[in-house]
Amino acid sequence: MLEHRWELSEQYQLDDKQEKSQGYENSFEKICTFDTIEQFWGYWNKIPEVSDVFYDGNEKFVVRTDSKNPEIPPKKYRIQGQCIFKEGIEPKYEDKQNMNGEDDHEKLSSFWETVVLSLIGETLDDGDNITGARIIDKSNPYKKQINHRVEIWFRDWKDDSFKDLLQARVEKLMKDCDITPKDLIFSQNDYSKWQK
User: Fewer beta carbons below 10 Å: N end or C end of the chain?
Assistant: First the structure.
């Protein structure tokens, strides 16, 4: 048994006005929930790798049925992100577990699996400060710009010792993955931007 129960979700790019009007939270589709390493690998090995679905100079789409509206015919979607959060914590700044925290992100798509394994293996966080992570495709196909970002979300922006520890552990993971530690950015969540 893992220490926490986790939810893995995909985030779709919302293109038309009707989809965008339904809000950010409607861009997510839960893939699975798991609490054992065997369940994780069973799901992880069946979902496409982010490098197979993120923009890389060529636009890529998947065909999905909307689980919230199964009567609507399957549709082409561009996967914009994939996220893993502790069960019950939503991948949005408004969630009470995220509102006083921040996300720590790197623009490195190959880093994602290592981060996921470190999260569920509880090796990035000695306590319970990390709430989840997501990888997001911020590429601009119109300008032919490729930009993938890994974000690690946590609860407490004011805990400088935790940020220092997290930075050291993330840099070690990057080195272990033969990735030059760069572009490590801490940005505080501005909850007021997300209030309606």
Answer: C
